[in-house]
UniProtKB/TrEMBL annotation:
Record bears the keyword DNA-binding: no
Signal peptide span: 1-25
Any single GO BP term: cellulose catabolic process
Residue sites binding substrate per the record: W71, W191, N218, W257, K282
SUPFAM superfamilies: Glycosyl hydrolases family 6, cellulases
Organism (species): Lentzea waywayandensis
Record's protein name: Glucanase
The entry's keywords: Carbohydrate metabolism, Cellulose degradation, Disulfide bond, Glycosidase, Hydrolase, Polysaccharide degradation, Signal
Enzyme class per UniProt: hydrolase
Short name of any one Pfam family annotated for the protein: Glyco_hydro_6
Length: 314
């Protein structure tokens, strides 16, 4: 809760400024003392539950001890679930990274992580509760990975519905989570052209939030990703903030997107690095689906062999 004290100091400082001096709102990074490390992430839980496995210590040291985003899907008690998670981080004066991943027709192109809320109205209720669960606590939120990039796999009616739901999500986070930096997902450098994704971001309400995310669950290098984000900003017509997922981009793009071989962990989460933030959004070691080098591991399931391959870059 030390961010409250910091906010008070910041407010007092603003009051001392002359009327002509503009006040700048504190970022969630200013209100916290580093990223939150989830003790119950999939790799940390696996390492804790398998202490005698020869891979356990390496997985915990290289992955489980790192700050990794937590993904939230369909949950009837999403408000309290999010409140408990953000509250745990707040209690340590740390910044949590959350992923809202429950929009209808999600993963429309890949299909391995399909599902989401059963209707548009159910999603509105869910995302409203999600935002309320964060409340005034500092947080970073990635909004619906792949949703905008996957438009070409949707019908015209589905695209219209999705754009409206994403805009509603941005409005809810803006209204109910004032100390959150939220980012609409903008795909990756090899999927949709910068001009097209910029149009979709504007349509989906990107101006209501901090900006957009790139490379979520993908492998493009940080330089490729920041270059792509810069091109997107050129078409947006203003300079939006952006974040890059570096969880698996240490060796750059490989053969395909679904559990390709030869990938490596990227740089650890940090402020800056050519973006607002470099983050581990995708959990390293969690399968993209039953494909590639994990042909029998369902999407969203942790596989220690995948984790070790990312550590070793093989």
């Amino acid at each position: 809760m030390r961010w409250i004290a910091r906010s008070t100091v910041a407010v007092c400082a603003v009051l001392l400024l002359s009327p002509a001096t503009p006040a700048t709102a504190a970022s969630p990074m200013d209100l916290t003392s580093g990223f939150y490390v989830n003790p119950n992430s999939a790799p940390a839980t696996w390492a804790r539950n398998n202490p005698s496995d020869s891979r356990s210590a390496r997985i915990q040291s290289s992955i489980g001890s790192r700050p990794i985003a937590r993904w939230f899907g369909n949950d009837a008690a999403i408000g309290s679930t999010v409140a408990n998670y953000a509250g745990a981080a707040d209690g340590q004066d740390k910044l949590p990274v959350l992923v809202a991943y429950n929009i209808p027709n999600r993963d429309a192109c890949g299909g391995h992580s399909g599902g989401g809320a059963g209707s548009a109205s159910a999603y509105r209720t869910w995302i409203s509760s999600f935002a309320a669960g964060i409340g005034t606590k500092p947080a970073v939120v990635i909004i619906e990975p792949d949703a905008l990039a996957a438009y070409d796999c949707l019908t015209a009616a589905q695209r219209t519905e999705m754009a409206g739901l994403l805009e509603y999500a941005t409005e809810q986070l803006k209204a109910k989570a004032p100390n959150t930096y939220a980012y609409l997902d903008g795909g990756n450098a090899g999927w949709v052209s910068p001009s097209t994704i910029a149009y979709r971001l504007n349509e989906a309400g990107v101006r209501n939030v901090r900006g957009f995310s790139v490379n979520v669950s993908n492998y493009y290098t940080t330089s490729q990703s920041t270059s792509y984000a810069g091109q997107v900003n050129g078409f947006l017509g203003y300079q939006a903030g952006f974040v890059v997922d570096t969880s698996r981009n240490g060796n750059g793009r490989g053969d395909g997107w679904c559990n390709p071989p030869g990938r490596r962990l990227g740089v650890a989460p940090q402020i800056g690095g050519g973006a607002d933030l470099l983050l581990w959004v995708k959990t390293p070691g969690v399968s993209d689906g039953p494909c590639g080098i994990a042909p029998t591991t369902p999407a969203g399931t942790f596989n220690p062999d995948l984790a070790i391959r990312l550590i070793d870059g093989v």
